[in-house]
Amino acid sequence: MLDVAIADGCVDEVAEATNIIARMQWAEAQVRTGIEVASDTFLRTLHARLFGQVWAGAGK
Predict the structure, then answer these.
(1) Which residues lie below 8 Å from residue 11, measured CB to CB, with a gap of 6+?
(2) CA-to-CA separations, 28 to 4, 20, 32, 42, 59, in angstroms, rounded
(3) Positive or negative: CA dihedral 40, 45, 50, 54
(4) Which tens digits make up the pLDDT trace of 31-53?
């Protein structure tokens, strides 16, 4: 499947999707610890982790 994505020029989309999956797993683990997920700090951290490698303004 990755070969198809590379051939179609979708490498960025694949990398972004892979990053989002990994960060959502991180978020799920945080929820299990009982962290306050509705806090500004948590949401900014999550946003930065989700999109920080893709979008310069993530988490700011």
Answers:
(1) 5
(2) 30, 12, 6, 12, 18
(3) positive
(4) 999 999 899 999 999 888 877 76
CA dist., res. 31 & res. 25, Å (int): 10
- Contact between 46 and 23 under an 8 Å Cβ cutoff? The reply is yes
What stretches of the chain show up as alpha helix (H) in DSSP?
A: 2-7, 11-32, 40-51
Q: What is the pTM of this model?
A: 0.60
Contacts of 26 (CB under 8 A, 6+ apart): 49
